[in-house]
Amino acid sequence: MPLNQYDQVGLLKDILNNHQMDCCGSVAELKQLERLIKSLLANTNIDQNVKSVLEEIYYYSQHGINSNNLDQHIESHQGNLSQWVSEIDQFS
Predict the structure, then answer these.
(1) Nearest residue to 22 via CA among 56, 61, 71
(2) Among 64, 48, 51, 50, which residue's Cα sits nearest to residue 15?
(3) Is residue 54 a contact partner of residue 23, using CB atoms and an 8 Å limit?
(4) What is the Cα–Cα distance from 80 to 5, expressed in whole angstroms?
(5) Residue 30 in contact with residue 64, Cβ under 8 Å?
(6) CA-CA distances (angstroms) from residue 78 to 17, 18, 36?
(7) Whose CA is closest to 91, among 58, 54, 65?
(8) What InterPro entries does the record tag this protein with (predicted)?
(9) What is the rounded end-to-end Cα distance, in angstroms, of the chain?
(10) Separation of alpha carbons 47 and 49, rounded Å
(11) Cα–Cα distance for residue pair 86/13, rounded to 1 Å
(12) Secondary structure percentages of the chain, helix, strand, coil, to 5
């Protein structure tokens, strides 16, 4: 059963919150973020402000997947993680 947009946004925020709270994550989570974002960006009704946040998160995911030290990558984006969740909450 495919996830609707509301569920996709919820899962996206859950992963970001976990990265922020735990200061660690997995490549599988980052790949899941990429899949969610691609799906959300395909929705033509999504707010332009959300699109720019989603693009930032997508780049975060790509860089994390290719990082030699994933935990360090996540730690270096702690400020962004909470900001992204807040911005998504404002527009979703």
Answers:
(1) 71
(2) 64
(3) no
(4) 22
(5) yes
(6) 10, 11, 20
(7) 54
(8) YtzH
(9) 22
(10) 5
(11) 9
(12) 75, 0, 25
Whether the CB-CB separation of 87 and 53 falls below 8 Å is answered with yes
What residue type is 70 in one-letter code?
A: L
Torsion angles phi and psi, residue 23, rounded to 5: 55, 30
Per-residue pLDDT of the chain (92 residues; tens, 9 = 90+): 678 888 999 999 999 999 999 999 999 999 999 999 999 999 878 888 889 999 999 999 999 999 999 999 999 999 999 999 999 888 76
Residue 10: both structure tokens together: 């919820």
Residues in the chain: 92
